[in-house]
Amino acid sequence: MQLESIFYFPSLNETFFIIINTVSITIGLCLIVYGLIKQKKHKKSTLATCCMVLGSLTIITHIIQIVAKLL
């Protein structure tokens, strides 16, 4: 029995993968902008800080995925 038949994982089309990552990066940018606007209106807002951190992490992880997929 071959290992490939046991551990078969269907993969998405590469262009579809890049489109999903691009949309996620755009959502991350929107979260950062929303957090910055909310931070400007309310000086110490936990929601604004969470949005900015979550947006930054989303952008970083999806950029790493795109770079890893292209290499």
From TrEMBL:
<keyword id="KW-1133">Transmembrane helix</keyword>
<keyword id="KW-0812">Transmembrane</keyword>
<feature type="transmembrane region" description="Helical">
    <location>
        <begin position="49"/>
        <end position="68"/>
    </location>
</feature>
<keyword id="KW-0472">Membrane</keyword>
<feature type="transmembrane region" description="Helical">
    <location>
        <begin position="16"/>
        <end position="37"/>
    </location>
</feature>
<protein>
    <submittedName>
        <fullName>Uncharacterized protein</fullName>
    </submittedName>
</protein>
